[in-house]
# Entry
Amino acid sequence: MTEDATRQRADAKANRARILDVARDAFAATPDASLNSIAKAAGIGPGTLYRHFPTREALVLGVYRHEIDTLVQLAHGLTAIHPPLQAFRLWCDRLAQYGRVKHGLTDVLHSAAADPVHAEVYGPMVEAVGHLVSACQGAEEFRSGIEAEDVLLLLAFLWRPRVADTDPGRSDRMLTLVVEGLRAR
# Structure
């Protein structure tokens, strides 16, 4: 591959990443964000956005995949630098942030087109939670016999879109209840 082709590929990857980051923030702020406003905020032309994401649905699914990939990678990164229980809570905080983003993506994520994407990302999410649970079990913070998929289902309250929550402390209190239920006795 030539140096020009390598540079073009790097530029395309950087554009894609910037589009996804800007779109995530735009959809979190307002689900009706236009693709043109996202392109402008990303500092690219509409043609570049449409080359990467030919439809609004493709962009929403791209943001969803990107957020899940980030969460999966984060699980391993957090356990490398934090005590297991702190890593678990930090990961759950990030999951809650994702829930606020997902609120702006709800219609597309409930469409039939999203089903293959859900199936694609579910296994990695279960693995990420399993990694965190295993780390907590290894530190004797969580009891044995916990299934990662069960924990992921328990944590659903963090990423389920909900109408404006007037109690900002609710997620933290609910997470504390989950953690206490998982604790080693």
The first helix runs from residue 3 to 29. The chain has two domains: 1-54, 56-185. The chain is about 75% helix and 0% strand.
